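Give me the 3D structure for Annulin.
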Amino acid sequence: MTDGMKREDFSVPVLTILDVDPCIGENGAKHRTSRYEAMTRRGDGSRLVVRRGQEFYLHLALSRDYDPNTDGISLVFTVDGAERPQYGHGTLVATPVLYPGQRSEASWQAYIDSLHSDFLRLKIVPAPDAIIGKWRMDIDTKNKSTDGAVSYTMKNPFYLVFNPWCREDAVYMEDEEERQEYVMAEDGLIWRGSYNRPRRTVWKYSQFERDILDCALHLMIEVGRVRISARHDPVVIARVLSAAVNSPDDNGAVMGNWSNDFGGGTPPTKWLGSQKILQQYYKTRKPVKYGQCWVFSGVLATICRALGLPCRVVTNYASAHDTQSSLTVDYFVDAEGKAMEELNSDSIWRNISTRGTRCG
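Predicted structure for Annulin (360 residues):
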C-alpha cells in the first residue's frame, strides 16, 4: 500500500478517511509518554509513542457520516521494516472496528468510542505481549452491500513500548514508586569507589531525549539482531542489549578502556550521563570512546528505560569471580605460606550492573 487512498470501485459511495489525528497530548498523558522528544515536536514532526496492553485513541476525519448499516471499517497493523509481515510471527495484525461490548478474535482490539458529524473517535488496544518497535497502520473502509473499498495509510509509524502499568504485560510492576524509579526517573546516583570508601556519581539517564528511543531500537534490531518474533520478550531483549552496549559485540555503543591512556576519546570519569554517548553513537554508528563498568551500566539503563523496560543500576562492592565452578573463591599457598600464583585465578572485585524486574 502507498500513502493516502486507493479506490477499488469509484462508482459506489465508499466512506473515505480524510485525515487521522494521533491525539498526541491525550495519549501522551495517559501512557506517560509525553516526555519523549518525538512526542514534543511541532506540527507534522511529532510521532506517537504508546505502551502496549493499554488503549490509545485516534480521531478520524471522514468524507461523510459513518453508517454502521452500510460501512465497515478494519485496521491493519504491520511492524515497520518487516519484509514479509505474518500473522503467526505477530508482525501482522488485522482487526475490525467494533462497538463497545463486542470483541474480535484478533490479538488487538479496536472500538468506536464516539461518533459525530463526519468524525469518528477510535479506541485501540494493542496486545499486552505485542512486538516492541515501530508499527504502521492502514485503515480499510468498505461498503457492505457493494464491496467497494478504500484504504488509507497513515503517513508515519507509531512507537510501541513496554508497559509496566499493565498487569498483563510481563514487565508489570505493582508499586508506583518503583515504576517511577525504574522507568520514569531521568537521573540518579551510581555508586563507585570501594566498600570502605564508597563514592557516588550523579548520572543523567535522559531516556526521553532526541534519538535515544531510535538508538535503543537500533541496538536491539541491528546490533543485537533480536529475531522479529522475539521482540515482544523482555528477557530476550534485556540479555541482547546488555551485550549490545559493549563494542566488541558487533560494533556496540561504547568501547571499554581500563588503561590510563584515553587518547582519541573521552576518559570514562568525564561522562556525566548517557545522552551524548548515545546521540554520538546513533549519528556515527561507531563505538564511543571510552567507558568502564558504571558507564556501560548507565547507558544500558537508559536504553532499557527508553523501551519501557524497568531497570536500575546496582553496585556490588564484593563480587566473587569463581573461575573453577567450585562455588567458592579459592586462594592457594604452598607449605611455606607463599602464594601459588599459577593456581590463583579467582578474585573479588567491584561490579556495577543493571538490575531489571522479574518477568513472567
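The first helix runs from residue 24 to 31. Let me know if you want a second pass.
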